TrEMBL record:
Name by which UniProt lists this protein: DUF1631 domain-containing protein
Polar residues biased stretches: 232-257
Pfam families per record: DUF1631 (PF07793)
Highest taxon in the source lineage: Bacteria
Organism classification: Bacteria, Pseudomonadati, Pseudomonadota, Gammaproteobacteria, Pseudomonadales
Organism: Marinobacter oulmenensis
Length: 736
């Protein structure tokens, strides 16, 4: 059966999938890996096609050019078959993975032994060396995730052991599978190495995200969830699950006890500082302790928690069901709690209910927290409205678990930070009904309002699901953004090259009236040679040489009567004509007219040599436009430069990955992320959260936009941390 047929691939894939029972988690990983590798492999083959086309375009002979074109044709014909064979081989690795490091005795020996390598011919040796280098580099670069994944897969597959661990995603397995898949290609070693190079660049170099995803899936399934790895020279250890629920599902990153203690100490110190300021304010207001007042019944925290639980969603849910509808809601939480206490006061005699000072501080702190959130410009308006509806649930959390403010890793705090971080790039102009991110945030808020009954685990679950969603979306956006960035760099560099070529030719030809044939050669032919030379910017100084050709041509078109100059003319012209013809051929100048144009140029040069000038100075008076149509020259404004200097310094502090908001003249606004700073073209490229380009500006243009109030830099720090710092600042200001 044809190895490239779709029927064969489906058959092999089915055999690979059904040959042995594979755990559900491994099936998920396998499907994700095969799909992602398929996408990455397409990028690799596209890059191979581009590389071969570039080589063919710059080939020094017809035979060499035909060789590259034949290789392109061969790869295009067999590409789909190679992709299917590679995916089938990858799928089989998950059914019965070979022991990592021992693919088979023959391969291992051939790879490791210099004697065995010496038995190979030169082409096979080159390919083998390239393959080994690729594998070695990947093993070193992804050492941590690979060791963790090997431990987890070895725990899944019953045939694995300490002496024979397995990992179906090991670089050596994937690289060997691809090497075998391309054996059907009838191409020479140089083209084969190009294929391996692009596979390394587009597939192997991007294995990190697949390894992390596999580790995350197995960790969530409880397969070696706690793994500590101390680098290349350290020891690795695996322990059984002993973590708290809030610690599971965090990927492979581990935090030392000292780091956790330091963070917790900082959070606790900040919360204690807030409490001290509030206590100081109470003392200044002359408020006595409620425990000493016999007419007051102090409500303990447990009773307060049950009272707040009685709050329903009428304060948070709009009639339309769209939680982002309207303006952010503002609640007086302390007044709301007091009303509830008053309504439930029965059988307490003449005493009136009152809150404990610590509980009152917590309620006030939640109110101040949401005051900051409702004023925080960094949140997009719809996300701000959604988060504002969580005031009562957060109050329930704080009363039930007072570590919300003193522990940065609190589940509810983490979820609020995640929602705010994800929503920073969401613009009000986005179509909410079709936006997946909006639906995710909307559903999370809706579930909290309807399902939260005091169990903090709900926040942990929602945050874990939301982080998984963000990870998938960010991975897609990163790939799109990378392609956008590369495309923009190429486009902007091309534009810069064209501007430079046009400027040089305009500068050198403007003073003269050139013959039509010369004008045609320079503007429609040689300009393309100059363009390519500028883009390549190679070490051979071709750009400088192409500019010199223009100077030499113009010089040779002048009449020369001095004997020394005429001798120089005789030396220059033959090489000049040869260079011009070679360059025009390289850029595929009109082949049918090339001989005719070159003959005409020779005629013009011969005329110049016979002292009949082939070039005339341009009439300066006619070259200048009439006075009334000339635009007035604007002198640099020193005051304007000084005014934007401050904003220039802010622009210079911008880094790739920073978010900003642009406001248009018509009142609409949009948010975007700085994706690339192309210094040589003075260009800042911005993309939306999908990774697509939305705008580009120069440094000066950005400074002017900021000066006019049409550009705002957005803060990306954790929402709750920023809110607490702002609360401390406000409290200190009022206490001063």
């Amino acid at each position: 059966m044809n190895k490239q047929s779709g029927i064969h691939y489906l058959s092999e894939h089915r055999e690979a999938a059904d040959g042995r029972n594979v755990p559900q988690e491994v099936v998920r990983i396998r499907d994700t890996v095969i799909a992602s590798l398929g996408d990455l492999l397409q990028g690799a083959f596209d890059a191979v096609d581009d590389s071969l086309f570039e080589l063919a375009n710059n080939a020094r002979s017809n035979n060499e050019q035909n060789r590259y074109f034949e290789a392109m044709r061969e790869i295009r014909i067999k590409r789909k078959g190679i992709e299917r064979q590679f995916q089938t081989a990858t799928s089989r690795l998950f059914v019965k993975p070979p022991a990592t490091g021992n693919l088979n005795q023959e391969t291992a020996t051939r790879t490791a032994s210099p004697d065995s390598l010496s038995l190979l011919d030169n082409d096979d040796l080159e390919e083998q060396v390239a393959l080994n280098a690729m594998i070695t580099k990947a093993n070193a670069h992804f050492q941590g995730p690979l060791i963790q994944l090997q431990a987890r897969f070895s725990a899944v597959y019953p045939d694995a052991s300490d002496t024979a661990p397995v990992n179906p995603m090991a670089p050596e397995h994937l690289c060997r599978a691809f090497s075998e898949a391309i054996q059907s290609l009838d191409i020479q070693i140089r083209e084969r190495l190009i294929v391996l190079k692009q596979f390394d660049r587009y597939v192997v170099s991007n294995l990190g995200m697949l390894l992390d995803e596999a580790n995350r899936i197995l960790t969530q399934a409880g397969i070696v969830p706690n793994f500590r790895y101390q680098g290349k020279t350290g020891q690795q250890s695996v322990s059984k699950p002993q973590a708290t629920p809030s610690e599971t599902g965090r990927g492979t990153t581990t935090v030392s006890p000292g780091q956790r203690a330091e963070t917790a100490a900082e959070d606790s110190a900040l919360f204690e500082q807030i409490q001290q300021i509030l206590a100081h304010q109470r003392a200044n207001n002359g408020r006595a302790s409620r425990h000493q007042d016999p007419s007051v019944r102090v409500v303990n925290s447990q009773e307060l928690a049950s009272v707040i639980t009685a709050l329903n969603a009428r304060h948070s849910l709009p009639e339309s069901g769209d939680l982002s509808e309207g303006e952010p809601i503002t609640l007086d939480l302390e007044q709301l709690v007091r009303q509830l206490l008053a309504q439930q006061q029965t059988g307490s005699g003449n005493t009136s209910p009152a809150l404990e000072e610590k509980d009152e501080d917590l309620i006030n702190l939640v109110s101040m927290l949401f005051e900051f959130i409702l004023d925080d410009y960094n949140l997009s308006a719809p996300v701000q409205v959604l988060i504002s509806r969580l005031q009562i649930p957060v109050l329930k959390v704080v009363i039930k678990d007072k570590s919300f403010f003193s522990r940065s890793g609190h589940p509810a705090r983490k979820l609020l930070n995640s929602l705010a971080r994800a929503g920073i790039g969401w613009s009000s102009s986005d179509e909410k009904a079709r936006d997946k991110l909006y639906n995710q945030i909307h559903n999370i808020v809706h579930r909290i309002l309807n399902e939260f009954d005091g169990d903090i685990e709900l926040f942990e679950t929602l945050n874990r699901e939301f982080e998984q969603y963000l990870e998938r979306e960010n991975r897609k956006a990163s790939l799109v953004e990378q392609r956008t960035r590369e495309s923009e760099r190429g486009r902007i560099k091309s534009r810069k090259a064209q501007e430079e070529v046009d400027s040089i030719l305009q500068e050198k030809t403007a003073p003269y009236q050139l013959p039509e044939s010369v004008q045609d050669i320079l503007m429609n032919g040689w300009s393309r040679v100059m363009f390519l030379a500028y883009l390549r910017n190679d070490a051979d100084h071709r750009w400088t040489e192409t500019v010199k050709v223009v100077d030499d041509l113009i010089w040779c078109l002048h009449p020369h009567e001095d004997d020394e100059e005429r001798d120089q003319w005789v030396r220059v012209v033959p090489g000049l004509l040869k260079t011009l013809r070679a360059g025009l051929k390289e850029v595929s100048y009109n082949a049918n007219r090339l001989d005719e144009v070159m003959a005409s140029l020779k005629h013009e040069l011969a005329g110049a040599f016979r002292t009949r000038s082939a070039i005339q100075p341009r009439d300066e008076t006619r070259a200048e436009p009439p006075g009334p149509e000339t635009e007035p020259t604007t002198e640099p404004n020193g005051d304007d430069d000084a005014a934007i200097a401050e904003f220039m310094s802010q622009i210079d502090r911008l880094n790739t990955g920073d978010w900003v908001e642009f406001r248009l003249v018509n009142g609409t606004s949009f948010r975007c992320k700085l994706s690339a700073i192309i210094r040589e073209a003075d260009c800042f490229v911005f993309v939306n959260r999908m990774g697509l380009k939305v705008i580009e500006k120069t440094r000066t243009e950005l400074a002017h936009e900021m000066r006019k109030g049409r550009l705002t830099l957005l803060e990306q720090g954790a929402l709750i941390d920023r809110a607490l710092n702002a609360v401390v600042g406000n409290l200190r200001a009022h206490s001063a």
